[in-house]
Amino acid sequence: MNKCTERIFNGLVKENPTFVLMLGMCPTLAVTTSAINGIGMGLSTTAVLIMSNMLISILRKIIPDSVRMPAFIVVVASFVTIVDFLLEGFVPGLYDSLGLYIPLIVVNCIILGRAESYASKNPVLPSVFDGIGMGLGFTVGLTCIGIVRELIGAGQIFGKQVMPDSYEPLTIFILAPGAFFVLACLVALQNKIKHHLAKKGNEAPQAAGCGEGCASCAGRGICGGHLVSDTKKEEEGA
């Protein structure tokens, strides 16, 4: 698997922002009352992720380390403003539905997190694919939650009636409690599938830490994985 494909797989599966990292919970729970809202918010965030990752990667050697976070926010805010105007001009219905959550993409921890942890340290092409992967992962998460909530709460999917006329919608699913319940159920389902695959040997279970090389990890001491590695080395030396 080459590096670009790995970045897409990473965002969709291994580090899915919604179901694995639990990032961007504010828009995830607020705008997913319907599937179209979920996919609209996800694609808007994906566009900002790709463009901001690309520009931050290009400027990574120019931006002084002391002002990198304000610089990242300026870059992200510029692209969010562009997306905001485009939605207002070409998709006014979706723009009205998403409302304030489009400008709030500026402070979305997914975007700033990828800018800080990946785009500012890697070349342009992998950074672009990292943005694509994380954005698509976020879009898939929001769309899945929106489909379930809209189906149970309104009997529709993407605005089309799919449940019979006799179906009585459970409106709690398009309210805040329904968002938490659906998110919890989908996360539990994903964990069940991953556990099943690990038991069958299709996926190597991680015993501790992040599974990456601890010696070169910038966050040594945070995940605890290096403790296992260091202990094994001491035992082998003994």
Give the helices and strands, then pairings.
Elements: H1 3-14, H2 25-30, H3 35-58, H4 68-90, H5 92-98, H6 109-117, H7 124-154, E1 156-157, E2 160-161, H8 176-200, H9 225-237
Antiparallel strand pairs: 1-2
Helix pairs in contact: 1-7, 3-4, 3-6, 3-7, 4-5, 4-6, 7-8
Describe the structure.
The protein is mainly alpha-helical. The protein folds into 2 domains: 3-200, no CATH class; 214-238, no CATH class. Helix content is 63%, strand content 2%. It has 9 helices and 2 strands. The protein has a two-stranded antiparallel sheet. A hairpin with a 2-residue loop joins strand 1 and strand 2 (160-161). Helix 4 crosses helix 5. The longest helix has 31 residues, at 124-154. The two termini are 37 Å apart.
Shape: globular
> Can you give the helix content as a percent range?
55-70%
Task: Spell out the helices and strands N to C.
Answer: HHHHHHHEEHH
Largest sheet: 2 strands, antiparallel
Number of strands: 2
Structural class: mainly alpha
Mean pLDDT: 85
Question: Runs with pLDDT <50, length 5+?
Answer: 203-216, 219-238
Oligomer: single chain
Strand order across the largest sheet: 1-2
- Total of helices: 9
Rounded radius of gyration (Å): 20 Å
How much of the residues is beta strand, in percent? under 5%
